[in-house]
Design brief:
- Belongs to the zinc-containing alcohol dehydrogenase family.
- By secondary structure, this protein is α/β, with parallel strands linked by helices.
- The chain folds into 2 domains: about 200 residues, Medium-chain alcohol dehydrogenases, catalytic domain (Quinone Oxidoreductase, Chain A, domain 1), CATH 3.90.180.10; about 130 residues, NAD(P)-binding Rossmann-like Domain (Rossmann fold), CATH 3.40.50.
- Helices cover about 30% and strands about 25% of the residues.
- Strands 1, 3, 4, 7, 8, 15 and 16 form a 7-stranded mixed beta sheet that branches. The protein has a 6-stranded parallel beta sheet with strand order 11-10-9-12-13-14, with helices on both faces. It has a 3-stranded mixed beta sheet with strand order 2-6-5, with no helix packed on it.
- Helix 5 packs across helix 6.
- The longest helix has 13 residues.
- It is globular, with a radius of gyration of 20 Å.
């Protein structure tokens, strides 16, 4: 049983989303400490506060609280967190992503027999219990179900960060989303919520594109059947889109993203790639046409998670549409197998407790 320290909470996990980032770790495509527990978008119940935790944390997240955890777990104290840029938290990258630990340099998971450390990808949420820093948690309203709400911590959180902070989508903007999996399809819903006019979904599977229309896509392009760059330019009257989002993490889709934005447009990259992957861009077009290429890893937990709760609670973001499959805890391996084979439309969730 993991034990929380000061400023941390022990969560009895209820559900955990099935995300490509975990799959990258499982396949060794992204280097990470091993052995480790993956799973980084969770809902659960607060069962314990770390000793010497700030009374304000206990007041905000009392025992028995229903909570959502975001995959970026801000320390709250570094130079970025103090400016409100939780998505660039120094400790999160230095300790969790680089070493698989929390911010004292230690994991909270150990093998029972030998006491050897087991590392944590974010909170290591694919488990019956996990330890989460308080800054990464937000109260889940009673009206929202544990299962579907798990995706708020990564798929929806990543999409919101891309749309609100990186792209700064405004009403009337045209938006293209390349790759309409869990994160991409959430981008479509957020773009619609922000009042985007043309919302173009690009994928290689007709089934995903059909579903994209329910998320708000006004146009769909199957890139195996037609050139997505030409088609996007055609749809936008020869100009290109205000914002293009790459949600896959491949050099080919990186190029499609940068080439389908209009002059002065924003190409936002949110898909993680195999380590060492490189995207290319025509320098003269970048310079002359003032193209903006922006990376975005996720949202800002302390500001954005409460907003996502309200979007979901009001139905502006439809959680039920977004989650297409549910697995039992025992079927976790099958869930990642299905994800690897491209069999999941939208997002899948593993029910734990």
């Amino acid at each position: 049983m993991p034990r929380p320290k000061a400023g941390e909470l022990l969560i009895k996990t209820k559900a955990c989303g099935v995300c490509h980032s975990d799959l990258h770790v499982l396949k060794g495509e992204i280097p990470f400490s091993s052995p480790c527990v993956v799973g980084h978008e969770i809902t659960g119940e607060v069962v314990e506060h770390g000793p010497l935790s700030d009374p304000k944390i206990i007041e905000r997240l009392p025992l028995g609280s229903r909570v959502v955890g975001s995959f970026i777990m801000p320390c709250g104290n570094c130079s970025y967190c103090s400016k409100g840029h939780d998505d660039l938290c120094e400790d999160f990258f230095a300790y969790n992503r680089a070493k698989g630990t929390l911010y004292d340099g230690e994991t909270r998971l150990f093998l029972r027999g030998s006491g050897k450390p087991v590392f944590m990808y974010s909170m290591g949420g694919l488990a019956e219990y996990c330890v989460v820093p308080a800054n990464a948690l937000c109260v889940l309203p009673k009206a929202l179900p544990y299962s579907e709400s798990a995706i708020l911590g990564c798929a929806v959180f990543t999409a919101y960060g891309a749309m609100a902070h990186a792209a700064e989508v405004r009403p009337g903007d045209s938006v293209a989303v390349i790759g309409t999996g869990g994160v991409g399809s959430s981008c479509l819903q957020i773009a619609r919520a922000f009042g985007a006019s043309d919302i173009i979904a690009v994928d290689v599977q007709d089934e995903k594109l059909q579903k994209a229309k329910t998320f708000g896509a006004t146009h769909t392009i199957n890139s195996t059947k037609e050139d997505p760059i030409q088609k996007i330019i055609e749809i936008t009257g020869g100009k290109g889109v205000d914002v293009a989002v790459e949600a896959l993490g491949k050099p080919q889709t990186f190029a499609q993203c940068t080439q389908s934005v209009k002059d002065g447009g924003k190409a936002v990259m949110i898909g993680l790639a195999q380590a060492g992957s490189v995207g290319e861009m025509d320098i003269n077009r970048l310079v002359r046409r003032k193209i903006q290429i922006i990376g975005s890893y996720g949202g800002r937990a302390r500001q954005d998670l409460p907003k996502l709760m309200r979007l979901a609670e009001s139905g502006i973001f439809n959680l039920e549409h977004a989650v297409s499959r549910r697995y039992t805890f025992e079927e976790a391996a099958k869930a990642f197998q299905d994800l690897n084979q491209g069999n999941i439309v939208g997002r899948a969730v593993i029910d734990i407790n």
